[in-house]
Amino acid sequence: MESVARGGTKWKRFAVVMVPSIAATAAIGVALSQGALAASFSVSGQQFKVSADKLVGEEMVQYGTVDMGADGKPHPVTVSAFNNAKIYDMCQSVVTKVPFLGDITMVLNAGGDPQKPVKAKDIYIDIAQLDSSKATFSNIDIGVATGSTRDGYPKPKEKSEGDHKQVDLNGFAQQAEGAVIENVKQTAWATSASTLELSGFGLQLKKGSGAGVECY
Prior knowledge:
Blueprint (H helix, E strand, L loop, with lengths): L3 E2 L15 H7 L14 E2 L4 E22 L4 E15 L1 E9 L3 E9 L7 E25 L15 E2 L13 E20 L2 E3 L4 E6 L9
Parallel strand pairs: 2-3
Antiparallel strand pairs: 1-8, 3-4, 3-5, 3-9, 4-7, 5-6, 6-11, 7-9, 7-10
């Protein structure tokens, strides 16, 4: 079996990182059962939304790649990873079309208490789009090859045979000792983490979709 590493390319649209959607993937895996799970790196045609007041992350790496959908279509993403992250006042929503009922939105909330944020370790997220009011990076290297990240930093994940082949491992990437990202709105395809702690966890099902129903 040939193992293909997730590589990097330059995606101008994705200049900053965000990872809170890892929490929702772990907590609402049933809603993403069509395949949007980063563990297999095969994604469905269904994105999910995440908003948060703030993300504080340590030892970040970021690189561009392509996820192969279960429908056979490629999805360009920016993979962002942190060794540790704290997410404050996190919301995640995913919309599912239910026969005879229409759109049903599952909404997850956690980390609303400023003293008890969502905590994640070894997290990877495949981002489609992100907006933030402010992002601050400490000791950042831009343009570093993904195959030469600093010791102790997350490494590009490997993909098993049958998944979509990724771009060159030595492609464009960036890394930083830390990041603080504020007022985040994000869409993503997939996430994974080694450990996850959801404080103040809440889950709701709402009829409909869009503004006022989803996280944003």
